[in-house]
Amino acid sequence: MGKADQNKRLKMENLLNTSFELFTSQGINKTSISDIVNKAGVAKGTFYLYFKDKYDIRNRLIAHKSSQLFMQAYEALQESGIDVFEDRLIFIMDNVLDELAANKGLLAFIYKDLSWAVFKKALITPMGNDDVDFGEIYRKMVEESDVKFSNPEVMLFLIIELVGSTGYSSIMYNDPVPLEELKPHLEQTVRGIIKQYTL
Fold first, then answer.
1. How do residues 121-168 score in pLDDT, each as one tens digit?
2. How confident is the model over 178-196, as pLDDT tens digits?
3. What is the pTM of this model?
4. What is the 3-state secondary structure (H, E, C) of the chain?
5. What CA–CA distance (Å, rounded) separates 20 from 43?
6. Please, what's the largest Cα pairwise distance for the chain?
7. Close Cβ partners of 196 (under 8 Å, ≥ 6 residues apart)
8. Structure confidence at residue 114 as a pLDDT band (50, 70, 90)
9. Long-range Cβ pairs for the range 18-25 (8 Å, 24+)
10. Is residue 87 within 8 Å of residue 141, measured between CB atoms?
């Protein structure tokens, strides 16, 4: 990577980090592009080199932060020695939930605007070199599994929706129960979903 490319990457990362800080501290509606560029110390034109508007940067941040969560979980999985597909998915689920429980600001940011469409974009188009292509990892996990699945993408969608919504309520409000009490129920349900899609 040349110096110009490095400089561009640093500016983009600076804009992403600044936006994340402002979005999580004062909310997206109260954050203007002027706020972002002033705090980042760059010209407004620089912002538009990388992003269309503040909603574009928000969506890319959601994808980026989600990618980082899954990357950490996947790296931990690699060290765990777990090789059964079901157990691997449960391990990733637990790891991601624990990370979100430890960082409620990140959970509130990701969950509030997270949609399957945004998540799917993260699966298909990682934002940078540090972003994990979770779609590729998931496909590899499916391929390496001893069993075959019908509609593995639909199966993943259902699991993400279930874990996302119930995990959010449990972490943020202890509703219906705290996360540690919820996990066995989630695990049982996720295993049930996987079984339903197993051929």
1. 555 544 555 566 777 888 889 999 989 999 998 998 899 888 888 999
2. 999 999 999 999 999 999 9
3. 0.80
4. CCHHHHHHHHHHHHHHHHHHHHHHHHCCCCCCHHHHHHHHCCCHHHHHHHCCCHHHHHHHHHHHHHHHHHHHHHHHHHHHCCCCHHHHHHHHHHHHHHHHHHCHHHHHHHHHHCCHHHHHHHHHCCCCCCCCCHHHHHHHHHHHCCCCECCHHHHHHHHHHHHHHHHHHHHHHCCCCCHHHHHHHHHHHHHHHHHHCEC
5. 18
6. 55
7. 155
8. low
9. 19/54, 19/57, 19/58, 19/61, 20/61, 20/65, 20/109, 23/58, 23/61, 23/109, 24/105, 24/106, 24/108, 24/109
10. no
Amino acid occupying residue 29? N
